[in-house]
Write a structure and sequence with these properties.
Structural class: alpha/beta
Order of helices and strands: EHHEEEHEHEEHEH
Number of strands: 8
CATH topology: Rossmann fold
Shape: globular
Strand order of the largest sheet: 2-1-5-6-7-8
CATH architecture: 3-Layer(aba) Sandwich
Radius of gyration: 17 Å
Number of domains: 1
Oligomer: single chain
CATH superfamily: Alpha/Beta hydrolase fold, catalytic domain
Strand content: 15-25%
CATH class: Alpha Beta
Number of helices: 6
Length: 224
């Protein structure tokens, strides 16, 4: 890669109870690690999430006041739990539309990156692209950090009878208590071309020097 190479543009999809600003803050180390290779563009989920009481949170920042999510597994409570079995969800269509509009208004993008619930949404976006159901989606790669298969019955069509050929990098922590490693691994059969990066930590986007080669080698596949 030459120093004059144009950075890859990557659309970033935050996790549940995050927003574009808080996710940008939490990926500061990743942005620094890959600053010569990628430009990360962050978007907001369309749905506001009822805030957790201050007694339940050890650290709060201004961005905590604007907590957002991509869909709710409990439609009445407007809450989400990745393990919650549900027949139907609330809000996914609006979130697909939000990604669609981001691509139209801020694209083109080379890739898409998602974290936690955002990574689960990215998997669904990849399925729509694979089936050519959304012409505006034309990503060349996907990065899914702490991704998982939605437990909602309404979403199972995204995984059934489908192999997603889009190159993907799946990142998960062996000590993740929010999205356990096995939940992330359960998504891998849908992505036969998956690259995998495991780390010994928990529920975060790893960006240490030990992880740099895996990210860089994957991204080099898409650089001119």
């Amino acid at each position: 890669m030459s120093s004059a190479a144009v950075p890859l543009r990557v659309l970033c999809v935050h996790g549940y109870r995050q927003n574009s600003s808080s996710f940008r803050e939490k990926t500061g180390a990743l942005r620094k690690l890959l600053r010569k290779q990628v430009e990360l563009v962050f978007i907001n989920a369309p749905h506001q999430v009822p805030p957790i009481s201050s007694a339940q949170v050890q650290e709060k920042s201004a961005s905590d006041e604007d907590q957002r999510g991509w869909w709710f597994s409990d439609s009445q409570a407007r809450s989400f739990d990745a393990r919650q079995q549900c027949e139907s969800s609330l809000g996914l269509e609006e979130s697909v539309e939000a990604v669609r509009m981001a691509v139209k208004d801020q694209g083109p993008f080379d890739g898409i990156l998602g974290f936690s619930q955002g990574a689960a949404l990215v998997a669904m976006i990849c399925a729509l692209q694979e089936r050519k159901q959304e012409p505006v989606f034309n990503f060349r790669f996907a990065v899914l950090v702490a991704g998982f298969r939605s437990a909602c019955a309404q979403h199972q069509h995204f995984y059934e009878n489908l192999e997603i050929t889009l190159p993907s990098l799946h990142v998960f922590g062996q000590e993740d208590k929010v999205i356990p490693e096995q939940m992330s691994r359960d998504l891998l059969p849908t992505f036969p071309r998956a690259h995998v990066l495991t780390h010994p930590g928990g529920h975060f986007v790893p960006a240490g020097s030990a992880h740099r080669p895996v990210y860089q080698e994957f991204l080099k596949l898409f650089q001119q």
